[in-house]
Amino acid sequence: MFKDQVVWITGASSGIGEALAQQFAARGARLVLSSRRENELNRVKEFCISQGLTAENILVLPLDVTDHDSIPAAVEKVRDHFGRIDMLINNAGISQRSLCADTDMSVYRRIMDVDVLGQIAMTKAVLPVMLAQGSGHIAVTSSVAGKIGAPMRTGYCAAKHAVIGFFDALRAETARDGIFVTTILPGFVQTNISNNALMGDGSKFGTTDKDITNGMDVTRCAEVIIDGLSKRKPELPVGDGFEYLPD
Known about the structure:
The protein has 7 helices and 7 strands. By secondary structure, the protein is an alpha/beta fold. It has one domain (about 5-240): Rossmann fold.
């Protein structure tokens, strides 16, 4: 289904974003890979080439989603290279590991900037392209934390709840425009999310949670996501751990 479609993935240098890039490459999609780390994006690109995708069908586009002013120019680079954007996967994000009482307001602002406003800014810049095309698919990586509250994650849960609200509303707005919107709700997945999570003073947590270590394999996670995207599911739970056990 995804052969020759232009798929733009943010947060593509590691974790779920990297795994999605690999899986889309295997399906013949044309890829735009974005994150702040150009060297890692080039590593992902080389792997995708080894999967059979040609170099001209992969655009490495370093980008900080919190630099909103830079995003329109990035959209134009994608249009100049590929001519269209069929899918945007808003996957950039950062987590938290600190109690509310110990968390500086700057940490809350950073989480909201990356996990909420960055996704909104990307979507607002790409949406006019899809409206002009009369087609497109926008996805965002929220979390099971966007449905429930969890200790040590007040900012992260708040951000992921906000993301679900925004994209649910966007889905209602674009339902008649040929544009699909999917919120992805991963549970525990084997990535570096907890290692890179912010502590109360803004420093990195630097440790992988046991729940993450024992979580879903990231490749399997990407496969489930792509299957759900192919079916254009509006909401896509992804997980096989206790966080998705029935009550």
